[in-house]
Design brief:
Length: about 120
């Protein structure tokens, strides 16, 4: 359950609108700019390694970066900051998984044994 707070300082949304008298036409939190910057650098590194440094790969990469930044922005709040989000992601990726894969098929008829009902 999420409770509304009455603290004015706590309820402030840290939003960068741009320099005075020259604001951006969109609202974005500081965390969104940090996530977008990190993802842009990673995208440029991947494109340079794959030798795809043309105009259209960069345009498509930036569109993907914007989408991923918006998706990450849905999870980043004043309660869950960028550091907590990164630690949670890292722990989920490194969590131990069971090596045994369970079959999704029904058991064969010769594997089923009937139990004798004792009366």
């Amino acid at each position: 359950m999420k409770m509304n707070v009455d603290d004015e300082v706590y309820a402030v949304d840290n939003v960068f609108l741009g320099p005075p008298r020259m604001t951006f036409p969109w609202r974005a939190r500081y965390q969104a700019y940090a996530v977008g910057g990190i993802l842009t650098v990673l995208m440029l590194i991947v494109l340079s390694v794959l030798d795809l440094m043309g105009f259209w790969p960069i345009v498509y990469g930036l569109i993907i970066v914007i989408g991923l930044t918006r998706k990450a922005g849905q999870y980043l709040t004043h309660d869950v900051n960028l550091r907590a989000f990164a630690i949670t992601f890292w722990n989920e990726v490194r969590a131990p998984r069971s090596a045994k894969v369970q079959p999704l098929t029904a058991p064969m008829s010769f594997d089923i044994r009937r139990q004798a009902h004792l009366s």
